[in-house]
Amino acid sequence: METDLPLVAGLVIGALSVPSVLSAVSERRPPRVSLLSILVAIALVTYAVMFKPGGYRVADVPEVFFRVLGQLF
User: Fold this and answer.
1) What is the pLDDT of residue 1?
2) Contact residues for 15 (Cβ-Cβ < 8 A; gap 6+)
3) Would the pTM count as exceeding 0.90?
4) Which of 73, 18, 66 lies closest to 7, judged by CA?
5) Measured distance CA(26)–CA(16) in Å, rounded
6) Percentage helix, strand, coil, to 5, in the chain?
7) Cβ count within 10 A of residue 69
8) Which residues contact 45 (CB under 8 A, 6 or more apart)?
9) pLDDT, tens digit, for every residue of 1-59?
């Protein structure tokens, strides 16, 4: 349970940073903050996968996502 929140946070941060990267690239400016947020997302997901006994399967991600949302609300 303690690694579920970093997994979900990393996935959300990663998903939200993709439009920012595309916007920066299309405007021909360096995507510094966007790449930093992607690195944070990768670090969070890596932490969650490495410290979860047995790891995560792709099929587990929706269940984990909704479990974390249920805990938050």
Assistant:
1) 65
2) none
3) no
4) 66
5) 17
6) 80, 0, 20
7) 10
8) 6, 7, 10, 11, 14
9) 689 999 999 999 999 999 999 999 999 999 999 999 999 999 999 999 999 988 899 99
